[in-house]
Structures are given as C-alpha cells and as structure tokens.
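Run log, item B.
One chain of 276 residues. Sequence copied directly from the ordering sheet:
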Amino acid sequence: MIVDVHTHCNTSAHHGRYEKDRARIYGGRPENPPDKYDEAMKDVDVSIVVGLRATRLGVATPNAYIADFVRQTTGPTIGYMALDLCDDDVMDQLEDGLARGLKGVKLYPILAGFDVREPKHDPFFREVARLGVPLLIHTGTSASPDAILELSHPLVYDGLARRHPDVRMVLAHMSHPWQRECVIVLRKHANVYADVSAMWLRTMEGYQAIVRAQEWGVVDKLVFGSDYPIWTPRQGIDGLRAMAARDWSPFPSIEPETIESILNRDSLELLGLELP
C-alpha cells in the first residue's frame, strides 16, 4: 500500500503575502480542484491532504475548506488542519478541525514564526499527544524572504521530541538541506519520522540523504510524500526509483529495496491513523 503523507489542497487565494515569493521561485501554482486531485492520486492507495497557515503573513487555509475538499474527493483521503501556534484561539481551531473530521495537523513554523520548544506551546503539544493527533511539520528551507530559517532546522525538533516524546510527527522534506541532522534526530526518537518529498529533485542531496539513512539504520523512519501539486505522486515515485537505478560507483548504492520499503510503508499505522 502506497500512502502519500504530504499533499496540498491550498490555492493561491490562501497564500497571503507568501504567494508573490512562492510564485517568484516556482512560477504559477496550478489551482487544485478535487477532480484534478483525484486524477493525480490514482498512483497511490491513500493520501493525506493539508493546507497552510501563517497568520503574520496572511496565509490561511480554513478548516472548513479542507474538510469540504476531502468530502469531494473520491479516493481514500485523510484531511489535516493547518494551524499557527501564534494564534490565540489555536486550541479552539484544533477542536473545530477535529469536529469536522480532520485527523492531523500541519504546522509551518518557518513562516508562522513560532518556536515549538517554547513552554507556552506545551498545552497544545500535550493535547495532541493525549488525543493521538499526528503532526506534519514543514522543516528545511523556504522560498520566502520572510521565512525564519532557524525555526526550521531539525535540531529544533529534537528539542520538541525530548519535551513531548509521545507526539507523533513527520518532518517534511527530510529537513532539506539539513538531511544529515534530520537522520540523527530520526535515530534518537521513536515517534519522529521524515517524508522524502523532493529528495529526487536535487539528485546529489537526495542520494546523500538516502544513503545516510541506510548507513544510520533509519530507513524505516522514512515515509513517502509528493508535495502535490508542486509534484505528482507519479513524479515522486519515478524520481526515487531512478535515483536507486543510477550507478553511483565508487560510492555506496541506494539499494532498490530501500526505495520500495519507503514506497510501501504503512504510514497510517506509524501515525496512528485508520484507513478512511
């Protein structure tokens, strides 16, 4: 079973100040109606779909929008709410999202501007741990000049995992370009995972990241994600397999079974989620 843990339903209308910076790097973002989403998800068995929220930049995908998007998809789709821990009503937003059937939370600290290690955020993390609500956290770089890079380094999430070891979290993009440190955080913490979205795009970085995961024995902590609609699941699957097929000699190979294990991992079980 292939689970795509990292897809988006947010549109340019949700991006606030971030849209101009995102478009400068990536170009126009295709709008993403549910029928187009369904077509792209034919190559996976289950998908997790998220929005974005960073209140200081006017970025917000409402819970109601995400829940309605999930209802309109025809394939097995799990919705995550997008929250900003700087919002005074974040606990109310969490309760609202759960009431709408959303099963997890997407956090974007690099744009929202919060440090997950600060004690004032402990009530939120205690609550998601109590409820068994998994997190997908953007880690690594960003196209926005407003991004606060030091809030997105994987060692920040070592701090979070030490403070709240029962919180299940996925670090998006293996925290690129800090994949080396990400691997070490995965090795330390039972409930911390990382998705491999975009690892195939920058081939040398992706190669080094996957080989390091092999050498440090944490391939079982890697899960598949595409970051759709920037890339489709098919692009992600083919890109990962192409990396494994390359001749990297005299350096270590990416083992074919490494990629297949990532693609076929039961990420739902790891994250405590049920098949929709």
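Observations after the first pass:
- Residues 31 and 48 are 18 Å apart (CA to CA).
- Residues 3-271 form a domain with the TIM Barrel fold (CATH 3.20.20.140).
Flagged for discussion on Thursday.
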